[in-house]
């Protein structure tokens, strides 16, 4: 059961990482490719210990328990790629290439020693989950256990050190959480390997510790889960944040539609984009919402600039008075006043009124709030409150004495 869980965790992580690399070319860095390779090899290392696969490898090679040394070798290679991933993040590609050379030599030497010790061990029946423990009193198996445990412990300590170092360099919370999960996973793996080293050392004396296979499997399973979560959580969290951001951009674009359509009708030469996307269009074009939102914000600003000759201070004051009568805060008062002014200017433009030449300033908004402000403006200028303000403006306005002046700042 445990090999199914651990292999499933690694392969699921590989699917998540692979999908991110496939959809985001910028993520196809050496570190990203090393992350994918680590998950794939880690999954394969666990798959070969599943009983049907284990027996199939025995039949293929003609030697019992060959899958054990194959699994351990793949596990060490997978851990080596995890080291490359961390080295790329902490030292850059060039620094990682130089630092990986001696690590590769150590891993290759350890795998060669394991293969030799396995070959020197007398053949026994297939025991997928407990080959080392069942034969720990054999000197070659005990030494095999010590070599494998020390090699893997060295890799895990290196990964833990690099993870802690990299956590001091990152700024995003999701990456820090992922590194903490990764470090926790290496701690569980290290506990398992130290236990295996003790088993091997005791086995060299011709004795064995009390059976503890369930504890060992629990440590392996827990460590693998935390390691995979450490790899997946930052990617999934970033994808969720990106999804929410794009959905928010789509929502802002849709909220701009009333004002956008009206300005597009009056100034088609300024607003080059399509007037309306519709539900299906937004789903199809969802990926480009950031670009579309920026384009729409610029086009609405251009349309409002063309509309300024018809904007009147009286409309601004009447809208502000109506909003204050309702007890709104200062920001909402300014929004209602601006909405009333824009609605009045559109009505005057459509009615054929002549515009003035006095430059009318609009409400100043911070650049990072422009899209939100325009979306609020588009939704507000068609509300009943603005309609009531326009009715009040009609009763108060004296066309003969009408004169547009600058809005108060």
From TrEMBL:
<dbReference type="InterPro" id="IPR046675">
    <property type="entry name" value="DUF6545"/>
</dbReference>
<dbReference type="InterPro" id="IPR050039">
    <property type="entry name" value="MAB_1171c-like"/>
</dbReference>
<feature type="transmembrane region" description="Helical">
    <location>
        <begin position="215"/>
        <end position="244"/>
    </location>
</feature>
<keyword id="KW-0472">Membrane</keyword>
<dbReference type="Pfam" id="PF20182">
    <property type="entry name" value="DUF6545"/>
</dbReference>
<protein>
    <recommendedName>
        <fullName>DUF6545 domain-containing protein</fullName>
    </recommendedName>
</protein>
<feature type="transmembrane region" description="Helical">
    <location>
        <begin position="102"/>
        <end position="121"/>
    </location>
</feature>
<feature type="transmembrane region" description="Helical">
    <location>
        <begin position="177"/>
        <end position="195"/>
    </location>
</feature>
<keyword id="KW-1133">Transmembrane helix</keyword>
<feature type="transmembrane region" description="Helical">
    <location>
        <begin position="68"/>
        <end position="90"/>
    </location>
</feature>
<feature type="transmembrane region" description="Helical">
    <location>
        <begin position="141"/>
        <end position="157"/>
    </location>
</feature>
<keyword id="KW-0812">Transmembrane</keyword>
<feature type="domain" description="DUF6545">
    <location>
        <begin position="246"/>
        <end position="382"/>
    </location>
</feature>
């Amino acid at each position: 059961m445990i090999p199914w869980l651990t292999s499933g965790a690694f392969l699921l992580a590989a699917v998540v990482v692979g999908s991110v690399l496939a959809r985001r070319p910028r993520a196809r860095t050496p570190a990203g490719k090393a992350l994918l390779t680590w998950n794939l090899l880690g999954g394969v290392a666990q798959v070969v210990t599943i009983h049907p696969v284990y027996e199939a490898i025995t039949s293929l090679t003609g030697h019992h328990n060959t899958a054990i040394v194959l699994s351990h070798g793949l596990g060490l290679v997978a851990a080596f790629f995890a080291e490359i991933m961390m080295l790329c993040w902490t030292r850059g590609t060039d620094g990682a290439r130089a630092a990986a050379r001696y690590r590769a030599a150590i891993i290759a030497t350890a795998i060669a020693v394991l293969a030799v010790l396995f070959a020197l061990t007398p053949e026994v029946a297939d025991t997928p989950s407990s080959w080392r423990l069942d034969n720990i009193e054999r000197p070659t198996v005990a030494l095999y256990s010590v070599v494998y445990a020390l090699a893997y412990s060295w890799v895990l300590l290196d990964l833990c050190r690099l993870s802690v170092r990299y956590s001091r360099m990152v700024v995003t919370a999701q990456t820090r959480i992922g590194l903490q999960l990764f470090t926790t996973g290496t701690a569980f793996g290290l506990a398992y390997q130290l236990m295996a080293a003790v088993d091997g050392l005791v086995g060299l004396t011709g004795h064995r510790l009390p059976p503890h296979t369930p504890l060992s499997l629990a440590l392996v399973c827990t460590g693998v889960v935390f390691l995979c979560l450490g790899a997946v959580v930052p990617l999934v969290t970033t994808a969720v944040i990106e999804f929410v951001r794009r959905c928010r951009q789509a929502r802002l674009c849709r909220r701009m539609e009333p004002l956008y359509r009206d300005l597009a009708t009056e100034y088609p030469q300024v607003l080059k984009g399509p007037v309306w996307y519709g539900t299906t269009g937004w789903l199809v074009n969802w990926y480009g919402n950031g670009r579309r939102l920026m384009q729409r914000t610029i086009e609405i600003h251009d349309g409002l600039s063309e509309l300024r000759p018809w904007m009147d201070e009286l409309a601004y004051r009447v809208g502000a008075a109506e909003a204050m009568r309702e007890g709104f805060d200062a920001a909402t008062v300014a929004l209602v006043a601006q909405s009333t002014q824009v609605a009045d200017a559109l009505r005057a433009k459509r009615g054929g009124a002549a515009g003035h030449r006095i430059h009318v300033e609009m409400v100043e908004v911070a650049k990072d709030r422009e899209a939100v402000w325009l979306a609020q403006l588009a939704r507000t200028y068609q509300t009943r409150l603005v309609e009531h303000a326009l009715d009040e403006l009609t009763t108060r306005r004296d066309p003969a004495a009408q004169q547009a002046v600058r809005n108060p700042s």
